[in-house]
Amino acid sequence: MDFEITPNPSFIIGEFDSEDRTVSEALDKKEVNDQYFAIKWKDTLLELNYGMCITESVRDIVRMLDSIKKGESKFNMIFPSQAFCENWECKIFGKNITIKWLGREQYDDITVDSDLFTKEWLKLLHQFRVALIETGYSSNSLDDFYLLENIESYLP
Q1: Nearest Cα to Cα of residue 101 among 93, 114, 92, 91
Q2: Can you tell me the mean pLDDT for 132-140?
Q3: Domain total for the chain?
Q4: What is the CATH number of the domain that holds 8?
Q5: How far from chain centre, in Å, is Cα 78?
Q6: Is residue 152 part of a domain?
Q7: Which residues form the domain of 140?
Q8: Is 21 helix (H, G, I), strand (E, B) or coil?
């Protein structure tokens, strides 16, 4: 498999903070910044920090999954974080998605089944949702919690 996400099975958020208003704010904790997950890109295993690499991208990941679900033929996925500021050019052909990592010539393009690609990202979003709920967060406390409430709708 050319693309796989391996979440940290011990992922925790830390303490509930009533001042948090967004998913990204709720995930912006010291405990989150001390944890890592992995993305397999062809033969390369990238270890990424949850806090500095991905928590600011939840909204963008959901937009990417929405683009895949709608069958958009071409779109970009931009990870806006401080440590993982990356841009992927995504093209859908039938049931496959081809991803070109712009600005990183050392990473070859990958082509994977779009359903598999979606399921890999859903593992990470599901982990966020469960951890947020276990910490006491909900749609009553976070304005954009709705982004994580219906992620199963992206399942093929």
Answers
A1: 91
A2: 97
A3: 1
A4: 3.30.2450
A5: 11
A6: no
A7: 3-146
A8: coil
| Cβ pair 3, 120 in contact under 8 A | yes
**Residue 153 belongs to some domain of the structure:** no
Helices (H), 81-154: 114-135, 146-149
What residues pair up with 46 in beta bridges, in sequence order? 39
pLDDT digits 0-9 by tens, 28-85: 888 888 899 999 998 889 888 888 768 778 999 999 999 999 999 999 988 766 556 6
pTM assigned to the model: 0.91
For residue 147, give the DSSP letter: H
Assigned domain for 151 exists: no
Helix crossing, 58-70 with 114-135: angle to 10°?
140
Whole-angstrom distance, CA of residue 145 vs CA of residue 93: 31
150 contacts: CB under 8 Å, gap ≥ 6: none
